Amino acid sequence: FKQKTAYEIYQCDWSSDVCSSDLQVIVENRGGLSMEYVAKAPPDGHTILGYGSAAWLTQFLRDSVNWDIARDFIPVTLAMSSPNILVVHPSLPVKSTRELIALARARPGELNYAAGTIGAAPHLASELFNAMAHTNIVRIGYKGTGPSVIALLGGEVHLMIAGLGSVSPHIASGKLRALGITSAKPSALAPDLAPIATVLPGYESTSVLGILLPAKTPIAFVNRLQQEIARAVHKPETKELLFKAGVDANGTTPDEFAAFVKNETARMGKVIREAGIRE
Description:
alpha+beta, 10 strands
């Protein structure tokens, strides 16, 4: 399965015991309506949801949502994930995460960060940083990652946490300075960068793509789909393509994905509530 956007629905024919390259797959992009659509779909294995962390965190950003992640869905697999990079404008006099924290604490409310969509990974990663570092770095909102990066390049803002693909060329050219990576452990995607967690133990924030099915879908479909996705994302040619895009192949089991969602719901839900973040 190829992710074209942040929100996708996959419809598959499970009538064959063998998955083939000519199996028809319809990609239907419904944006924010994807969750409600799949929650109401027949649990026959034909409608599959590919979604990011908004699937389990939107409930904290709004007064109400029309789905319940635990009641209406079955987790299949965390298909892939991507760490983000903490970058600053070169004019900011810091060369490490530790130095940034010290400067931000010395100048509370004076530093700012760029972020696009409210509740998206770059935004929540920054607020998690604020919460764990006990800093007050102020969000400046932009219409997406592209405008945020442009603003940072132009010196309109001091820093941001962004995906590898969006900032790597600018790091290489010296137009931005990278301080750390948001993965819990060192990553081969950015081997020269230390995890922010080396300074803030327990810090972790990654962009993810999870696969879910409507509740009551037979467990045979759930297990089969997980196995096929895991096999697909771990093909050498697929892993290479993902790596070049700054993405790690995962393909976790349903139980592992369920545990991930439960942990992230509790951890990031607390951050959202305490920071008062609302869409």
